[in-house]
Amino acid sequence: MAALGSAPLSAQTRRTYASKVRQYLAWLAGAGVDGDPLASPAGRDWAVRDYRAYLQAKLKRSPATVNGALAAVDDFYIRHGVGPARAKRVDIAVAAPRALSARAQIRYLRAVQACASPRDRALALVPFYAGTRIAETVALDVADVRLSARKGVLRILGNGQRQREVPIHPQLRAALSEWLQERRDWTGADGEALFLNRRGGRLGARGAHEVITGIAARGGLDDRVTAHVLRHSFATTLVRGGTDLVTAAELLGHARLETTRAYTRPSHEDRRKAVELLPVDE
Q1: Residue 158: which pLDDT band, with cuts at 50, 70 and 90?
Q2: Within this chain, do residues 148 and 242 fall inside the same structural domain, yes or no?
Q3: Is 76 exposed, middle or buried (0-12, 13-18, 19+ CB in 10 A)?
Q4: Integer Cα distance of 28 and 24 in angstroms
Q5: Distance CA 164, CA 38 (A)
Q6: What is the pLDDT of residues 89-100, one digit of tens each?
Q7: Are residues 110 and 164 both part of a single domain?
Q8: Cα(256)–Cα(260) distance, integer angstroms
Q9: Which pairs count as long-range contacts for 230-233, CB under 8 Å and 24+ apart, including other chains?
Q10: DSSP assignment, residue 242?
C-alpha cells in the first residue's frame, strides 16, 4: 500500500486500487487457495483466477467491475515484485458507455435548477457541460475558470497530467459566475480550490459524488446518475450530434481515439428500440 501511495496516479485511482486490493486480501485470508499466492507465481495465478470466479459467480459483479478488480490486484503484485497474474479478463459486451437519455438529461437539468445551493448547481453542471471526471472536477482551481462577458474556457488537468481546455457552455458559465460571486463570502475559503467543503477547504471526490447523486435522486431519475454517467452523456451527445472524433477526443482528454470511438457503438437503448420494431400479431 505504501508503494501505491507514491505512484503517479490520481488520488481517486489510488483510493480505488487500495480498496480493491484490501477486498482481495480479505478474501484471500479466508479462501482455501493452492500454493503461496503472495510469493509463488503459480499460487498467484491460481488465487487470482479463483477470485475472478468468486466475483462473477458468488458476488455477481459486472464484467467491468471484475476487470477493474483484477487490474488493481495486478498492480499490487507488480509493486511487490511478483508480476501480474496470468488470468484472462472477462469479456465485456461491446456497447456504448451508459449515458442519460435525452429525456433524462432534461429531468436532470431541471433538478439542478431546483437546487438552492449555487455551489452544488455549478458542481453538478461541470461534468454534464464540460465532460469532466469526478477527480478532474474537484481538482479545479478558481484560476482554471476563465470567464468573459459572453465566453469562457475551463482549463482541466486530466489523466497523465494532460491539460485540455473546454469552452464553457452558457448555462455552465451562468452557474459558475453565480458560485464564484458567493464563494468570495465563503467562510475560511481556500485560496485556490474552486469547489469548497463546509470548512472552506477543497471539496473531495466523495462529497462531490454525494452532491450529484443527491440532486439526481431529488429529481426522481430512475437510473443511478454519477459524474461519470454525466461525462458519458456529454460524450454521447457530441459524437452522435456529428462532432468529429478528433475534436471529441480533445474535449474529453482521451489519449487514444479508439476510446472516443466507443461512443459510436449502439447502446442498450438502441438495441431495445431495434427489437421493438419487430411486428406482433395480437
Answers
A1: confident
A2: yes
A3: buried
A4: 6
A5: 41
A6: 987 766 678 889
A7: yes
A8: 7
A9: 230/100, 230/108, 230/127, 230/128, 231/127, 231/131, 231/132, 231/133, 232/97, 232/98, 232/99, 232/263, 233/99, 233/100, 233/105, 233/128
A10: T
Does one domain contain both 253 and 172?
A: yes
Query: What pLDDT does residue 230 have?
Result: 96
Per-residue pLDDT tens over the stretch 29-86: 888 888 888 888 999 999 999 999 999 999 999 888 999 999 999 999 998 888 999 9
The stretches of the chain forming alpha helices (DSSP H) are: 2-5, 11-30, 41-53, 63-79, 102-114, 118-130, 134-138, 170-183, 205-218, 227-240, 245-252, 257-261, 268-276
Domain that holds residue 38: 2-79
* Domain contains 54: yes
39 contacts 46 by C-beta, under 8 angstroms: no
* Residue tagged 478488480 (cell numbers): 69
Alpha-carbon gap, residue 174 to 185, rounded angstroms = 18
Handedness of CA 242, 243, 248, 249 (dihedral sign): positive
How is residue 269 written as a grid cell? 437503448
Mean pLDDT score, 249-266: 88
Amino acid sitting at position 261: R
Beta-bridge partners for 49: none
CB 51 within 8 A of CB 57: no
The number of distinct structural domains making up the chain is 2
Q: What is the CA radius of gyration of the chain?
A: 22
DSSP string, 173-230: HHHHHHHHHHHTT-TT--SSBSSB-TTSSBPPHHHHHHHHHHHHHHTT-SSPP-HHHH
What is the total residue count of the chain?
282
